[in-house]
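Quick check before the chapter quiz. The format below is the same one you will see on the exam, so make sure you can read both the input and the output lines.
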Amino acid sequence: MGNSYAGQLKTTRFEEVLHNSIEASLRSNSLVPRPVFSQLYLEAEQQLSTLEGGGRGDNEDEEEEGEGALEPSGPPNPYQMHPPPEGCCTTDGFCQAGKDLRLVSISSEPIDVPAGFLLVGAKSPSLPDHLLVCAVDKRFLPDDNGHNALLGFSGNCVGCGKKGFCYFTEFSNHINLKLTTQPKKQKHLKYYLVRNAQGTLTKGPLICWKGSEFRSRPTSASACSSSLFPPAESSGPLATFSSEPVPGASPSVPLGAQQAGPASEHPSLATAVGPAVFNGKDSPKHQQLVKNDLSAMPRPSALGILSNSGPPKKRHKGWSPESPSATDAGYAQGGGNRAKYESAGMSCVPQVGSAGPASVTFPVVASGEPVSVPDNLLKICKAKPVIFKGHGNFPYLCGNLSDVVVSPLLYTCYQNSQSISRAYEHYGASAIQPISEEVQLLLTVYYLVQLAADQVPLMEDLEQIFLRSWRESHLTEIRQYQQAQPQPCPPAPSAVAPVTSAQLPWLAGLAASSCNDSVHIIECTYSLAEGLSEMFRLLIEGKLAKTNYVVIVRACRSPAIDSCVAVTGKYQARILSESLLTPAEYQKEVNYELVTGKVDLLGAFFSTLCPEGDIDILLDKFHQENQGRISSSLTASSVTKSASLDAPACTSYNLEPHHIRPFQLAVAQKLLSHVCSIADSSTQNLDLGSFEKVDFLICIPPSEVTYQQTLFHVWHSGVLSELGLEKEHMTKQRVEQYVLKLDAEAQTKFKSFLQNSFQNPHTLFVLIHDHAHWDLVSSAVHNLYSQSDPAVGLVDRLLNCREVKEAPNIVTLHVTSFPYALQTQHTLISPYNEIHWPASYSNGVDLYPENKKYFGLSEFIESTLSGHSLPLLRYDSSFEAMVTALGKRFPRLHSAVIRTFVLVQHYAAAMMAVSGLSQMKNYTSVETLEITQNLINSPKQCPCGHGLMVLLRVPCSPLAAVAYERLAHVRARLALEEHFEIILGNPSSGITVGKHFVKQLKLWQKIEDAEWRPQTYLELEGLPCILIFSGMDPHGESLPRSLRYCDLRLINSSCLVRTALEQELGLAAYFVSNEVSLEKAARNEPLESDAEKLSSTDNEDEELVTEGSTSEKRSPVKRERSCSHDSASSSLSSKASGSAPCRESSAQPGAPSQGERARSPQPCGPSEEGRAPGERQRPHAGRGPPSVISRRSPGLAAQPDSGPRTSQRSVQVSVTPSSSQLSSSGSSSSSGALVPQASRCSLTKACRQPPVVFLPKLVYDMVTATDSSGLPKAASLLPSHSVMWASSFRPLLSKTMTSTEQSLYYRQWTVPRPSHMDYSNRTEGRVDGFHPRRLLLSGPPQVGKTGAYLQFLSILSRMLIRLTEVDVYDEEEINIHLREESDWHYLQLSDPWPDLELFKKLPFDYIIHDPKYEDASLICSHLQSVKSEARGTSRKPEELYVRRQTARMRLSKYAAYNTYHHCEQCHHYMGFHPRYQLYESTLHAFAFSYSMLGEEIQLHFIIPKSKEHHFVFSQPGGQLESMRLPLVTDKSHEYIKSPTFTPTTGRHEHGLFNLYHAMDGASHLHVLVVKEYEMAIYKKYWPNHIMLVLPSIFNSAGVGAAHFLIKELSYHNLELERNRQEELGIKPQDIWPFIVISDDSCVMWNVVDVDCGGERSREFSWAERNVSLKHIMQHIEASPNITHYALIGMRKWSSKTGSAEVREPFSRCHVHDFIILNVDLTQNVQYNQNRFTCDDVDFNLRVHSAGLLLCRFNRFSVMKKQIAVGGHRSCHITSKVSDNPVAIVPAQYICAPDSKHTFLAAPAQLLLEKFLQHHSHRFFPLSLRNRGHPVLSVDCYLNLGSQISVCYVSSRPHSLNISCSDFMFSGLLLYLCDSFVGASFLKKFHFLKGATLCVICQDRNSLRQTVVRLELEDEWQFRLRDEFQTANAKEDRPLFFLTGRHI
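Here is the expected output.
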C-alpha cells in the first residue's frame, strides 16, 4: 500500500486552467497577464484541514499487518464481523446501547472510572476526526517503556456502563468500530485521555505499544494545557529547544539536513509538530498535546532499542517498528549503546492542520521477518551506515542496532513532493499527478550517481530536482512565463512515458552503471528485508568498499514499490549520522568520549607517527636544552624593549574615539521614521505626543564579553546623558541598569523594568533585544522543564509576556544579523516594521561616503572567485585528509573530537617547527604553519611588540578546554609564554590574560588604573594571542582589528543551516580602510558587475557594502601583492603535495601572507562598532619602504599590472612580502634585522585587509558553490533550526532579491517549529497577528548595529522633546515710543481687577501695538507728536513676508492641543475612545432675521449627543430653541460661564481646539465656527465638538463674516434666553452677556505675578508663569462691574516684555486674538462682515467711538502658536481665465471699468484690501510718510500700508472722536458710506491743497449718487479716467472706486 494514499484528490484539469488563463489575459487590461505557473503553484500551500492530514495519519495503520504483510499492496482481506444484534444502535460514535462515546460530546461529563482502570481514546476508521472514550484496565496497557502489557483485554463501556468485556473483538463490536481487519487493541486504542486544568477531558499522550517508546502516565500529566513536548534529555534542557541554534540536528543537514533540533523532521515537512526526541527512558511525564485542537495529531514516538536482540515474539510480529509516529530511538541508558534507530531526534509529529500527506507519519506495516544487524558491522565498515526509509514498508531491524542509523528524512521528502499538486488544487488545476514513486526513486539514483566522492547528499537538492522534474513534465505549455534556470544538478530525465515498477530496477541499474560502483542497486523480490540482509552481508564481506550509496528496491509484484537508500560511504555516513544529532546530544557524545577516555586511543596513535617518539619527549628534551639561553635572550629582546621608554614608538597603534558613521545615522533615522509611522497610523497603538522622555533596556545573550562590550558602547555613546537618564558622574553600576544579560538572574531586573514602565506612563521605554535570533524557544517548553534549566525559553517569557505586549509605552526592537527565524508565517513583526541596513551604492552613487568599507560574507566569497590573488576563504586539504583517515581508523569517535585533536596536534607541531625543531614541519599543514609563524614572529617586527590574533573556534566547551590545556603545555615547554598569550574564551566567563600581557596592553593603551583587566576582545588590540573561542554559538562578541586568522576548521560542519553558517563566518566580518590615493587609482578600472552582484547573497545591506566598495576593496592590496602568487600556490599546492619538503617550501611564502594578514588590522572584525570605531587612516609609510619590498620580491616589476586584474577581490589578503621574509624556521636572527622598521608592525596593514578564514571542506564547498539562482548554496539552506519549510514546493531565493524581498520570501515559505516562540501566534485572535509596537533591525554582522540603535535612542529622545515643544510668536510690541504720555496711567498697580471709575478716566490708546500689524497703517490721535517721521522706512517691501520671529516653548500641562494629541484623560473629551462609539451628532437649523442683511439668516448647529445639555429644545430631539446661558450672579468654580467661539478654516488637523487641559478639565461650552464646505472634515477630526456651520454664501468670505455672525447669533440667543428665563422669574440683566472669540492658534496662557514693594514705590519685581485658561477666565469673569465693559482682552506674550508693559495692570487699548465680548453692550456695533484683514482693529475703533470700554488685562498673556497651514493663508488669488498658475501681483488687483483686464477668482473685498495694503500710495501720493497729515478714514479702518497714517472718525451721532481741528488731512477715504455721512459732516474737516479723495461703492450707480449726495464736486475735482474697479467679473460683484483731487 506504501504511499498510494487514499483518495487522490480530484482536481479540474490543468488544461482548463491554462485555457482560462489565456482567456483572462486576452481580456485583461494589464500588459502582463499573471503566469499560470505562479497562479497554480507559487502561492503558499493552503494548509489542508486537520481532517485530511490527520485522517490519513490515523488510517495508515489500518493497513495489513502480520500475515497480511506479505502482500502489502493488495487490498486487505475484509474482516468478517459478527452482524450486530437486531434493533441495536449501529451509528458511528455511539455504542450499541445508543450512548454517545465521542470525546467531544462527553469531555465535560463526569465519568465513573473503576480503580485500576484508565480512560483511553479509541480510533474508529469511519470517524477519523473523533476519539471514542473507553475505560480499560491498565494492566492490559503497556508501562512507560512500552513493556509489560498483559495479553488480552479488560474494559468497560463508558456510555451505557456495561462492564466486563474480556475480548477486544467483542468490545470493538459493542462500540461500533466497524473494522475491516482483525480488531487489535494495539491498533485501535490510541491515546490516554486526561483532564486539563478546567476539568475537561482532553486527548493526552499516545499509548506507547512498542518496546522503546516512552509514555507518560496520564495521571501525572500536568495541568498545563498548552502543547507540551516530550523532552530531549532526561535531565538537561530539552534539546529541541535548547538555546543554541543547534547545529546538529539540523536542517539542511546533508541528506538529513532537514531536521531541526529534535524536531527534526524534514524542514519541508510542513507538519512536524514537535520535537520529541527522547534520549532516555525516564522522560518527563508531561506529554499531553492538548493545546487547542491537536486532535488529529499522532504522537511523536521514539523507536529505540529493543531490549532483546533476537526477533520479536510472535505476538509482536505484526507491529511495525515505527508506529505512526516514530520518533527516534533514544539511547538505552547504557552509555555508548546509542541506537539511533530512527534518526536521532526526528519527530514526525504532524503539526495541526498542516499540508497533505506530509502529515502521514511512517508506514506501519512490517514485512516478514525482521532483519538482524550484524554484530561487528562498525568494526568492519569503519562507519555506521545511515539508512533512509523511502517508499512503502520498511522492515523491522533487530540485533546490533547501535551500529546503524535509520532516518525518515527521505521518506518525508518523498511525501512532500508527492503533495505538490495538492497544494494547488484550489486553483482549479486539472488532475495533475504528483511525480510517481518510480520517478522519484529514479531521480534519487541520478542524484546520488552525480555526487562527487567528497560531497554529501542534501535534501534541499533532491527537493529542487523533484520540483524541476515535475514542473517540466506538467508545465511545458507555459514555459514562456518561466525563465529557464540553470540547474545545479543534471536535469532529471523528463518522464515522457511513465516508468513502470517493472522497469524501475533495470533503469536504476542503468543509471548507476556509469559511476564506478559508487551507487549500488539491490533488487529484492518479496520485501526490503532481503535487500537489507544482502547489503549487510556485502558490507561484512567488504564488497562495498568503493560504494557510497546502496539503493534497495522491491518493485515486482504490485503497483506499489518499497525502497530505501543506505549511505555506506565512510565519509558520507559519518557526516550524515552526526548531522542527525541535536546540539545537546552532540555535546553529550563528545563529553562521553572525553570522560570515558576513548580519546586516549588518538593520543597513542599520534605518538606512533612521530619518528623520534612521543612529541612530549621531544618537548621535554627541547625544554632542557634551551632553558637557560631562551629566557635570557627573550627578556632582553622583546619584553624590555616594549617597556623601555626610549624604544621607537609604533605609529600603527591608536585607538580612535567613538564616532557615529553616516550609515549608522541613516539607520537610526530609518528607525525613527518607522516609530513615527506607527504613531501616525490611525490605530493609535503609539501616542508619541504623550511621552516626555525615553528610557531603554538592552537584552543580550548570556555572554560576559558581549555584556561588557555593550556596557562599553552605552557608556561611550553618551546616550545616557543625552536621554537625561544619568547626570555627569556616571558609574559602571549605573550603566549596568540598562543592559540585561539573559541569564538566571535576568527575571528580577526585567521585573523592575516592567514596574518602571508601569509607573512612568509618560516615558517611552524601548526594549532592545540584541542578537535576537538567539533563544527563540517557546516558554511552553520552559513550563515543562523549568527545573532543569531556568534559562530555556527566557526570551519568550520576558519579551513576549503579556505586560510587554500590552504596555502602550513599550516599543520592542529586535536587532540581529540573521533575522530569518523571526520572518516566518507566524511572526509577530509586521513586514512594514522591518528595517534593513541600507545599501551603500545605488546606481553607482556612493550614498554614504565613509572612510571604511564593510567586508562581509559576500566579499569573502568573492575573494575566492578572482583567481589571481590569494583567497580569503580557504580550506586545508592536508588537515581534511588526515581527519578522514583517522575517521576510518576510529569509527566510534565523533569527528569533532578527531578534528580537534588533529588540529591541536598541528598547532603543537607548528609551534615546535617555528621554535627550531624543523623536523616537525612534516607533522603539520602548510596553513597551520603559516598561522603559527606569523603569530610568533609578528611581535618581533614591531618596536612595541604588537602582534596578531588567531581566532581558533572550538564550539564544544569540553574540547576547547582540552585544546587550551594542550596548547598551553606546548607553549610552556617551548618557552614561548611571553611571546604570545593563549586565551580561553567561554561565553559564561570573562577573559583571563596573564600579567605580563596585561602590563603590555596597559602600556599600549596608556591606562593608569592598576586594577584594569581587559574585559572585551576589543581590548586585546595588538596582543599576539590565540583566542580559543568556545560556545555553541557566537553571541555577538566583537573582535579587535589585530585579528588576522579566523580558524573555523572545527565548526560543526553538519550544522548546515543558514543562520549557523553565516553566524560563524560573521566572526571575520571587517571594516577595510578606504585610502584615498588608492581609491582614485582604482576608480579608473572597470567595475566588474557580476562579481559584485554576488553580494546579494546576504542582504542588500551587505550588498551594498560590497558593491560599491569593490574598487576600494581591491585597491589597497594591489601594490604589495608581490609574493602573493607563491603564497597562493603555497596554500593551494600544498593541498596536493604530500611530500614534506615540498610542503616546506611552499609554506614559506605562506608565512608572509600570514604576516600581512596579520598586519592587516582587523578593523572591522568582530567588533560591531568596536572595530569600526577604531578605524584609523594609516599613514602611507605604513606600507613599508618600497625598497624593502622590491628587494624581497624579484617578481615585483610584473606586479603592478597583475594588480588591477586581481583587484577584484580587493582585499584579498595580500600577502605582504615584508613578513614573508621570515624564514620558516622562525629563528629570531632573521627577524632581528627587521625590528627597527616601525612600519613592519602587523597592525599597519590591519585596516586594509580582512582576516583569512579557514573552513572545513564541506562548509567551504557549501559556501562557495552557487545554486541555479546564482546565489551561494548556503543561502538556500533552511534559514534556522527553529523553523521549517512550509513546503518543499517553493521557488529558490533569487540573486537579485533585496533584504526586504528575502524577508517576504521567508514569511511565505517558512513556519516555526512547535518549539519556536511564535508557533502559537496565529491562534491568538487577531488575524494578522502582528504586534503593533515591535520592530526588527537587521544588518550584516559587525556592521555597527549597536551604534545605530544607540543613536536612534538619542534622536528619538530629541524628537519627543521636540514634540512637547511648540513654536510660538515672540515679537516685541510695536510703536511703544508713540504711546501717549498722558497724566493718566492706571496707577493702582496691585489691583486684581480694574476699578470702573478710574478706568473710565483713562484715555483710549488708538495706536496698534500688536506686532502682527507691523505693516498696517498707523492710527493718528490728537495727542500725537508729529516729530518722528522715521517709521515705515525700516522694512523693505520684499520683507513683508519674512518669517516672523518665534520662540520654542515646552508645552505646559495647560496647553491647548491639535488633533495629534491623545492622552488617556482627554480621550473622552475628544470622542475617540475605543470604548465609545463615534459620537453621534444631530444637525439643527437655527434661523434669525437681521435687518441689515435684509433677510433671514439660517445657521446650522452640529451637536454631539454628549453636548446636548448645553442647549434648549422644544422637546427632546425637537426644534433647537436656544443655547443655555448662566447668570451673572453664578459664582460656581466648576465651569466657565462664557461660551467660546473659535472661527477656523483649513486647520481641521492643526487647529488647537482641544481645550481639555487648558480648561483644566472644567466644564465649558466650545463652538467651532466652520464654513459649510469644510463641515465634514472638521466633524471627522473633532467628532465631539459642537460646530456652527456658516451659510454657504459665506464659503468664500473672510474672518469678518464669521465674527459678524458669531456676534449676531450670540445677541439673538441672549434675547431668547432672557425671554425664556424671564418666565422663570429671572431679570433680563442677570443673564450672562459675554462670549469669548478665540483664534484657533492660542496655545498657552500666562500670568505675571507682580511684587509691588509698597503702594507708590517705583520698584517692583515680577515673574511670569503658565496657568490654565480656566484660571484666567474665572478671574476675569469674577471682575466687579464686569457687565460695564464691552471688550476685554489680554497681552500677546513676548519673551522681550519689559517691566513697563506689565507695570500697569490694565490698559484701555486695542485687543486682539482672544477677546471676551459683551454682546449686550455692543448690540449696535457690528463687525464688518466683508472684511478679510484688520477686522478686529476696525471693530475696536467702532466700539470705542460708541463710547464703550475696552480693557486689556496686561498681566495675562496669550501665546500664539505658529501654524503654517490654513487661516488667512487659505485665501489664494488666481486668474479666472487661465489654468496656469501665474503669479499675480497686487497692482493687477484693480483695473479700469469695462477694460479687457484679466479677471481674478477672488472676492472683491479681498482684492480691495490687498491692493490698498500694497498700492494705496497711488491714491494718496501726498500721504506717503507724512504722519502730520494723515488720511481721513470715515467709519472704517482700512490698512493703507505702513507708510501712510490714517485718522479714524465715526459719523454716528454722539460718537467719541478725536479732535480734528488741528489736522490738515492729505486724503479722504469714503468706504461704502451710509446715510450717517452727510455733506455737512465732511465740511468740518480741512484738507491740504492737492489732497486726494477715494470713494468706494458697490456699483457705478451708487458712486454717482454718493458724489451728488455728499456734494463732493464742490471741493473735489474728478476726471473720467479716475474711475476704477476691482478685477472681478460682473457676476462676482466688483467694487468701484472714484478718485479726485482737492481743489
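If your answer matched, good. The radius of gyration is 45 Å.
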